[in-house]
């Protein structure tokens, strides 16, 4: 049977690179050596030969009757024919592979990350190693093993490393996948966003029977079995395709387990007597009394406050409980709930009253839609875990009182105290009456002791004094062993970021990293409108100078490179530059000169010679209104023109125009339709009425007329004028711009309003005249 020449055929047996040399690989991505790329290009399918049924001229000076040009054309055609028979190597996109473990027959599909592996090696992610049943114990990271891996031919310890077979295989574009949960109790907030982000960032293929492990937002892992794919087969490609994802319902055993876990948590669920408070929205100046179990968080939201005022968030703790306070703004750049290892503002101290002050000048509050406030009862100290099973049992929740209020600095009242009758105790440094100083000092020196660092007084035999401590590296202090252990863990213990390889020297340092430069920080992208990490694998670095100057996150900078069409000028602009582009349009809008409209108050046309409209600029009339007044006689002083204007007024007011739509107040037809009792006027009355109008008309060629001319016009123009006056009555735009908007939109009211928004300056805005 003949082989299909349009299918890429390549396979190779490669040694698996040890895991410690491929820590950044995720999903189904693999690393292949450079030689694999060369072999793939050599094995690429050959494109069909180019056939030219209609030969074209290959030389510009070809003349069939000139033997010299004919020979040159023949040579050019021969070269083109030779080039058409050359092999055109085309690799499929995306490249997908089938990986087989010959030891156990396990099969999985994968996509390519880079061609940067060492020769005769293939780098596999942890997901692929698990799917092929390759354990970490199969690899050796000692010196002999390293030398064996680098040796040629696989001699020595390198023979002990696993070997897999990699085949190039083009998978069909997937349309459907069914996932089956492997454990009970899954309760994610948004499956669609979670799956879409995980599959898009980490996977090129899906293999039937493989297990997907998806990390949730609270350090949870959700495990799913790929149960079925369409088109039918052992794998599909999920790049550049619309993939429908279906979550299979829990089976009977999983449902019973889920119900059991929920019943166990019912007794200590949020809002119950033995559980933490449910949290929720809070308002200013209203104190909330709540409780929290050890190891749990209670989340609140402050949605409304005066952004110009300073906000104080106070937490009062009862019975010396160890409760922490965290605050984070909800903005496009901050989406996570505040936690011990991920917060913007935090208070870890051992004080019984904790306070966080947020000033309006703080830049992180600039785009805040709400304030997320979290109360956390620490235990031993586990900053981000919310699994109650891993925490010690607590007989009763810890009590607290939370209040957010507007900060008003209190005026300090100066009290003048001369202490003339008192003296200061040298031991406790308190003022006591002079007459009792001897008795006080005897008692104080025998029972009390003063800490020379913090100046606090303790009883000599008290547990607080025995456990009192000061940190050698900072000003922290406390009165028990647990507070010292917590301080060491929070402030002087290295912590690793779960989203990258960053190591922080303290928990506040880790929280600052995760809310600023961490690649895994979740943001709401302003271009794709999805909740995504701020830096993906293909995005630039967070500290890239171009990214810093743009004010965008790396994901937004990369995603903003896509183009769109400007709705004003139809120019193709990058998404990240569209705001600057629209600001240029806004400057043009403010600097545009006012349009020249027809001076006839009944006309709704613009004097625009560029549209082919003949106009009379001396009278400022459009071609339609000036038409009846036109004459080709020489009239430098405008006397004949005034007489024509006067006769036009006489004709309008004596006989009328007879048009049923006319609303001209200087027309008999117009005023008869606008009044219930028409009034007839004599010629003398009409001349006296129109004489001021005619005398005010400036027809001198050296000047431009500014007096209105009340002439009858057509129905379309009059209707546009009425609509323009209606819009101008709203007080936002001048009548000139309203007339121009309706004239440019052919009388469509909605389009005219859009035109005004895009092109016309509003009343009160600075306009360049």
Describe the protein in words.
- Helix 15 crosses helix 17 (683-695), helix 18 (715-728) crosses helix 19 and helix 19 (735-744) crosses helix 20 (749-759).
- This protein starts with 10 loop residues before the first strand and ends in a 10-residue tail after the last helix.
- It has 769 residues and is of the alpha+beta class.
- Helix content is 26%, strand content 20%.
- Among the domains are: 11-45 and 91-168, Barwin-like endoglucanases (Beta Barrel), CATH 2.40.40; 176-264, Vcp-like ATPase, Chain A, domain 2, CATH 3.10.330.10; 267-406, Jelly Rolls (Sandwich), CATH 2.60.120.380; 609-759, no CATH class.
- A six-stranded mixed β-barrel has the order 1-5-2-4-3-6. A five-stranded mixed β-sheet has the order 13-15-20-17-18, with no helix packed on it.
Task: Briefly summarize what is shown.
The protein is an alpha+beta fold and 769 residues long.
Helix content: 25-40%
Largest sheet: 6 strands, mixed, barrel
Strand order of the largest sheet: 1-5-2-4-3-6
Count of helices?
Answer: 20
Contiguous uncertain segments of 5+ residues: 48-54, 84-88, 142-158, 385-394, 411-416
Strand composition percent: 15-25%
Rounded mean pLDDT is 80
Q: How would you classify the helix and strand content by structural class?
A: alpha+beta
Separation, N- and C-terminal Cα atoms: 82 Å
Rg estimate, integer Å: 42 Å
- Overall outline: flat
Topology, number of strands: 33
Domain Ubiquitin-protein ligase E3A N-terminal zinc-binding: 647-672
Domain DUF7590: 275-406
Pfam families: AZUL (PF16558), DUF7590 (PF24503), UFD1_N1 (PF03152), UFD1_N2 (PF24842), Znf_XAF1_N (PF23580)
Region (Disordered): 140-160, 260-283
């Amino acid at each position: 049977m003949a082989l299909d020449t349009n299918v890429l055929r390549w396979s190779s047996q490669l040694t698996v690179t040890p895991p410690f040399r491929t820590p950044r690989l995720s999903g189904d991505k693999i690393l292949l050596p450079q030689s694999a790329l060369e072999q793939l290009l050599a094995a690429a399918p050959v494109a069909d030969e180019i056939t030219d049924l209609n030969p074209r001229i290959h030389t510009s000076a070809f003349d069939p009757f000139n033997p010299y040009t004919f020979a040159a054309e023949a040579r050019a055609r021969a070269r083109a024919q030779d080039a058409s028979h050359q092999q055109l190597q085309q690799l499929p996109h995306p490249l997908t592979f089938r990986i087989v473990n010959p030891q156990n027959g396990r099969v999985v599909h994968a996509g390519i990350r880079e061609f940067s592996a060492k020769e005769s090696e293939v780098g596999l992610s942890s997901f692929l190693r698990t799917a092929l049943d390759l354990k970490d114990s199969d690899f050796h990271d000692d010196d002999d093993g390293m030398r064996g891996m680098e040796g040629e031919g696989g001699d020595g310890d390198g023979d002990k490393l696993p070997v897999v077979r990699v085949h190039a295989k083009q998978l069909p574009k997937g349309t459907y996948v069914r996932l089956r949960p492997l454990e009970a109790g899954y309760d994610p907030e948004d499956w669609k966003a979670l799956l879409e982000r995980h599959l898009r960032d980490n996977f090129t293929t899906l293999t039937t029977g493989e297990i997907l492990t998806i990390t949730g937002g609270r350090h949870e892992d959700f495990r799913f079995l790929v149960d079925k794919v369409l088109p039918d087969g052992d794998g599909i490609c999920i790049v550049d395709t619309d993939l429908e994802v279906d979550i299979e319902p829990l089976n009977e055993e999983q449902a019973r387990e889920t119900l059991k876990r929920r019943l166990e948590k019912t007794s200590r669920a949020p809002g119950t007597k033995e559980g933490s408070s449910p949290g929720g929205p809070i308002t200013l100046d209203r104190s909330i009394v709540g409780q929290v179990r050890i190891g749990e968080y209670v989340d609140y939201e402050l949605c409304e406050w005066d952004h110009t005022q300073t906000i104080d968030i106070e937490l009062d703790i009862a019975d010396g409980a160890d409760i922490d306070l965290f605050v984070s703004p909800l903005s496009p750049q901050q989406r996570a709930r505040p936690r011990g290892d991920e917060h913007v503002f935090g208070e870890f101290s051992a004080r019984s009253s904790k306070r966080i002050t947020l000033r309006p000048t703080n830049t992180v509050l600039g785009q805040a839609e709400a304030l997320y406030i979290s109360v956390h009862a620490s235990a031993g100290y586990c900053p981000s875990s919310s699994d109650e099973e891993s925490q010690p049992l607590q007989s009763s929740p810890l009590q607290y009182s939370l209040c957010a209020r507007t900060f008003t600095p209190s005026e300090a009242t100066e009290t003048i105290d001369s202490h003339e009758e008192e003296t200061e105790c040298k031991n406790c440094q308190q003022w006591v009456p002079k007459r009792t100083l001897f008795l006080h000092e005897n008692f104080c020196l025998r029972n009390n002791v003063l800490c020379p660092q913090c100046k606090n007084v303790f009883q000599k035999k008290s547990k607080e004094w025995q456990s009192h401590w000061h940190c050698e590296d900072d000003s922290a202090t406390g009165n028990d062993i647990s507070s010292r252990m917590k301080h060491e863990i929070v402030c002087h213990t290295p912590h690793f970021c779960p989203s990258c390889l960053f190591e922080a020297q303290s928990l506040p340092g880790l929280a600052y990293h995760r809310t600023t430069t961490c690649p895994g920080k979740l943001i709401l992208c302003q271009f794709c409108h999805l909740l995504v990490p701020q830096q993906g694998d293909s995005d630039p670095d967070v500290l890239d100078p171009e990214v810093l100057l743009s004010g965008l996150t790396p994901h937004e900078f990369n995603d903003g490179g896509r183009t769109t069409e400007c709705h004003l000028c139809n120019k193709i602009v990058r998404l990240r530059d569209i705001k600057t582009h629209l600001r240029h349009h806004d400057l043009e809008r403010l600097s545009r000169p006012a349009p020249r409209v027809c001076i006839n108050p009944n006309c709704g046309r613009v004097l625009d010679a560029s549209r082919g409209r003949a106009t009379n600029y001396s009278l400022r009339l459009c071609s339609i209104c000036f038409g009846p007044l036109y004459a080709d006689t020489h009239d430098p002083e405008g006397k004949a023109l005034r007489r024509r204007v006067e006769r036009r007024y006489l004709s309008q007011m004596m006989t009328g125009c007879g048009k049923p739509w006319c609303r001209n107040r200087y027309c008999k037809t117009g005023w008869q339709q606008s009044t219930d009792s028409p009034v007839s006027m004599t010629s003398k009355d009409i001349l006296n009425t129109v004489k001021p109008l005619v005398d005010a008309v400036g027809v001198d060629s050296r000047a431009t007329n500014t007096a209105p001319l009340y002439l009858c016009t057509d129905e379309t123009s009059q209707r546009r004028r009425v609509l323009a006056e209606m819009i101008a009555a709203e007080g936002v735009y001048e009548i000139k711009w309203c007339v121009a908007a309706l004239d440019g939109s052919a009388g469509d009211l909605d389009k005219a309003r859009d035109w005004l928004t895009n092109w016309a300056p509003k009343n009160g805005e600075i306009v360049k005249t």
